[in-house]
Amino acid sequence: MLAVHRVMPGETLAVGLLNKQMGTGLVTRADESVIEMRVTLNQPPPTPLPLTLVLALPRPKMLKRVLQTIATMGVKRLILVNSYRVEKSYWQTPILQEHNLREQLLLGLEQGKDTLMPEVLLRKRFKPFVEDELPAICANSKAIVAHPGNYPACPLQLSDAVTLAIGPEGGFIPYEVEKLQACGFTPVSLGQRILRVETAIPVLLAKLF
What we know:
By secondary structure, the protein is α/β, with parallel strands linked by helices. About 30% of the residues lie in helices and about 25% in strands.
């Protein structure tokens, strides 16, 4: 913290307690080994997005950026799923270990000045997940799958809860789209251009909310 903030006694920093309130910390001592603060926690964290994000597991380098992005933007439930176009080796990445997920999510929370840690679930079998779990997950929400093709444009500024499914680059295969449609998902498009997943996510969240 000293190397990043270079604080001096008397200065005030924004602080927060994980999964609890936010506030300020008045620095009372700062030297090479310790920083002491008088902390006041009296502010709620930002309002979470009313969203569950179902995402085909991206390649590991992209996954790091995605985790930080969703935490920064207020997504509180992320379900990483398998897809035909997801490389099997992706599921072996150390990033999926709990402490590594937490590290990337914390970086995103710090960037967005938030304290509510997102929940991340891993589902390695697409068909059982869509048939057995997804109907309950997307119940009482607007279910949308972002997919390249001649589909209606992504809706704007929704006030309802949303379950958003995003496939790998190039999209889900037709069978997977059909399974999602059978579960109540409506395909939407972001236009003619094919976006990287790390680009599509913030674009979709900005349009939806």
